[in-house]
Design brief:
InterPro entries: DUF3626. By secondary structure, this protein is of the alpha+beta class. It contains twelve helices and 13 strands.
Length: 302
Amino acid sequence: MRQLIGLGQTALMELEAAGSPQEGAVRYVASLSSGPPLDPALRVTLNFHPDRVTDDRPILVALAEDGSYHSQFVTGTSNGGLTAYAGGDRWNWESRIFGGAYDTALATERPVYGALNFHQKPLGAAPRFGSAHLRLTADAVSRATFCYPDSVFEPSDFGVVTRMSLIDLADKDDRDLLDDYIEAQIHGPVLLDQHVEALILDPSYQGTTIEDQARHLPCPLEWHAGLEITIDELRRHPQYRGPEYVALAAELAVDGRLTPRIIGDAARTNRYDQQSLKKIWHYLARFGTPPTKTRATRSRTT
């Protein structure tokens, strides 16, 4: 285990306590990695939609009750593809990326997914997966592995905190802004009271039950500057996801605008196809801008 140089002492102890799958996975990815050490100031973020439901519970309620962030192998939910089962695509990707380290592991032992916020985006490293994000501590980052591009594309370029060439690779790539992230896998537990610096929410949730639920989490709450898009702006990009999604967005809009809260409200009615709402979210995440007037301030801790 001590061969995993560069890991913090706490991270080492957590991986040892978690058992050999995590140790084997980090060691295997390290053997495939090259480059200089990662800037210790950079953070991994876990983007998600704060107003969705997991296991029949609001996701923030589930986080408060469980005290930890789980992988889709445990939750059975995802903001991307849902293939976390034996023989599924996610299972096969993890088997290849981690050298089979998790092939016989329990679901609770598998890593959780986020992204390295190397551009220090206020909305988190990968807003395509949600308007909210958890910003992880340096200790949690120290036991992460990384790949570029996303594991769905079966990448061949990898990194760890002591060997990180992926930032230069990503900076030279010409990808859509929603795909401009370095995927991170956190090995070992992600406990909200130990491994999370803050939960960051969109200001459209201020004064709602989402804010109330967030305040029950054992981590600080912050607000980013916000995100909204007008229907007129959506109509300038009909082919980005398709004109049918622009039409649906116009149906959902309030006063000609969309916010994360409006899309979340629509999702909870179960009247709309969830994949269609995801496409609309992509429009907002890609082309949206901070509201002209907002009560939130960037990175305001409450």
